[in-house]
Amino acid sequence: MEKVGVLDENICDFAGKTIAPAGTRLTPDFMHKVAGSGPRGQVHIRLFEEPAMRSDLRQTLSEKNYKAIFGAEETVRQIMETMSDVRVHPAVLEGLLKFKQTDHYTYRHCLMVSALATLISPELPSVYQRSEEAPSVAPSHDIGKIAVPLEILQKTEPLTKRELALVQGHAACGFVLLTYYMGYESPKSCQVAYEHHERRDGSGYPRGVHLDDELVELVTVCDTFDALVSARPYRDAPFDRRTALEVLCDEADAGRFDWVPVKLLITHHRKKKVSIERLGVSKKRRGKPPRRNLHGTTAD
Predict the structure, then answer these.
(1) Which positions ≥6 away from 108 have C-beta within 8 Å?
(2) pTM above 0.85?
(3) What distance in Å separates the CA atoms of residue 189 and residue 289, rounded to the nearest whole number?
(4) ω into residue 206 within 30 of 0, thus cis?
(5) Closest CA to 109 of 159, 64, 143, 79
(6) Domains of the chain (ranges plus CATH)?
(7) Structure confidence by residue, pLDDT tens digits, 8-45
């Protein structure tokens, strides 16, 4: 029997209209109604239609933790060229620009996850299906965070259980919002938003389903890596790249992540790139996580 998500909070569109009230079960029938109730006729536009998006992405690619991956100018050129062709729904661009104004971390994070997915997706087994799709769905994976109060997203102390539920609710919120605005134009974007915190062993959220989708798992790995190596209010310092990659390896060893995107990410950190079939991954853990890391902890 398929696990059905239940909303903890009202979900509103960008104008404040309630799309789905708290307590709603996200059944296929309900989501079909949501898909037919949103605005229609909006043409997808280029992600870089907003000029600042291009310059912000280029600046992000030059950050310290990403020089090992995007240091070569040719690599940056290819990423920028591919993402120049990415088209998104106007609501996605509107959401990203809202993040830029109010929550720069989420804005930058969406761009970075998109860049990582763009880099790695052509090397996935089903490349002809996914290489163009990954750059177009990754920018909207965290769009549901627009419903989480900023003081919770930027809190430096442990969250309460209620606050943690609100943060984790961003996945279901993103699913509803994208379905409302896109209808059935981009079902994969909706799936990625809904499932990027699920895990292969069923230990994730919001539904605890067993993740088994190549594209969603790619975004999940990129999402986790960038969250680790980025500055966050709930820890003293970012993870260094070695420690972050070791965390991903531990997740794959435990059966929560797929090894393929993890190994592909590792190969892009190596000076001499090898195929994932020939890639050796050490079992030794030499990384040092930040001393104070409150991620996932609660105050009650």
Answers:
(1) 56, 60, 230
(2) yes
(3) 32
(4) yes
(5) 143
(6) 44-267 (1.10.3210.10)
(7) 999 999 999 999 999 999 999 999 999 999 998 788 89
